[in-house]
Every structure is written in C-alpha cells, then in structure tokens.
Amino acid sequence: MLYLFSGEDTQNKLAAYEEFLKTLSEETPAFFIGKNDFDPAQLENFYSGASLFSAKSAVVLRDILEDEETRELVLSKLKFMGESENLFVFLEGKLKKPVLDAFKKARAELNLFEVSKEKQKKFDNFLIANAFANKDKFHTWLYFRQAVEAGTELEPLAGVLFWKIKDMLLRRNFSKFKEAELKNFAARISYLLPAARTKGPEAESAFEQFLLEAF
Fold first, then answer.
1. Is the terminal CB of the chain with fewer CB neighbours within 10 Å at N or C?
2. Closest Cα to residue 148, out of 14, 8, 46, 42?
3. Distance in angstroms (rounded) separating the CA atoms of residues 28 and 42
C-alpha cells in the first residue's frame, strides 16, 4: 500500500502526515528511512515479505526521491510496494508530473500540498532566527524546510542566524542559552557558511543537522 505526501506547502503537508501516522495501529511498527541512509536491499526486504515483528509494518521514506538514481530505482519498484501488505509512506517536496503519474499508476493515495502562485512570497529568513533564539526546535526546523522548499539560498539563512546569535551575545541575552553555547553556535555557523556556498545536498544536510542538534 502506497501513500504520498508531497508539495511546497510544508506546514499543511507535515500536519497531514502527522495525522496519518496517528491513525496507525500501535501494533504496526514504523521504520524511517532518509535520503542519506537509503538501502535498496532493505527496501526490497520490506516489500517482498512481512515484518518479522508483526503482520504489517509502516515504512516511511523521506526526501529519497531527490536523488535521480534513487528516484529511478524507487519508481521502478512502486508496483511491488503497492501490492505489499506493508505500508509505504513517502514524504517529499514538490514532484514533477512524471513522478506523480508513476505513483498514480501504482494506485498510491496522493496527498498534494501546493502553494498557489497568488500566495507565494519571499520567505522571511528572520522566522528561523527568531525560532532559534526562542529555543523552539520544531519551528526552527519547520521554517528551515519551508525556506529550502521555497528556493531560498542557504548562505542568507546562515547569515541571518549568525547575526541573531551575535546580537544575543552583544546584548548579553542569556535567557535561553548560556554565553558559551552562543559562542559555540557562532563558531559552528562560521564553518557552515563555506559549505552553504556549494548549494549541494551535503551543505543542506549539514545545515539541517546543525539545527536539529543545537538543542
């Protein structure tokens, strides 16, 4: 069975995805696979047989269709995943029509969340900085994903975050973080900036990992 949650409207997409996960039985184990730990052999094991732990499992695959080679492999196996007793849940950004057509052909349940052109606007980079300053882990990550999917460059995001942390140090605002923590963050972001200039998946992953591990 196949389920796809896709689109640029990250907030509504994640909300629908979270609600879907809540509908799963407590007896259904969930396995989460990201783009950096995707293993074709592991995927084949999931769609070719039942779980060793229960009659049915939920396999959640996030952003694995970004890589062209992985995407072609996964699309060629959608038929088998659709016929499996296990559930395969894809959480992706905006996908092109041929990819969506492949999911439709495999009879996947499509949940598409697109932002209308009338509502599209330049992303406010300060949303991430303010959420970070408030030690709000979820919204810091959420705004980062929204910024990336809106096409925002990584370097300005890192720059405004660096500015926010330096401002907290200058104002001696240690209500959420200790001075040593802020100095450490500032140093780490300085190293992230050169990586951000590459604009590649490694820079994005490094930036996201920094935000997730900061607190």
1. C
2. 8
3. 18
Cα 90 → chain centroid: 11
The verdict on pTM exceeding 0.70 is no
Name 144's Cβ contacts closer than 8 Å, sequence gap at least 6. Answer: 128, 157, 207, 208, 211
61 membership: H or E segment, kind and range: strand 58-62
Q: Which CA distances in Å does 198 have to 10, 108, 155, 202?
A: 24, 35, 9, 8
State the Cα–Cα distance between residues 18 and 102, nearest whole angstrom. Answer: 24
Picking from 28, 19, 5, the residue whose alpha carbon sits closest to that of residue 85 is 28
Q: What's the pLDDT tens digit per position in 30-73?
A: 899 988 889 999 999 898 865 455 568 899 999 999 889 999 99
Q: What is the pLDDT of residues 66-96, one digit of tens each?
A: 889 999 999 999 999 999 989 999 999 889 9
- Rounded to whole angstroms, the Cα distance separating 127 from 157 reads 10
How far is 84 from 88, CA to CA, in rounded Å? Answer: 9
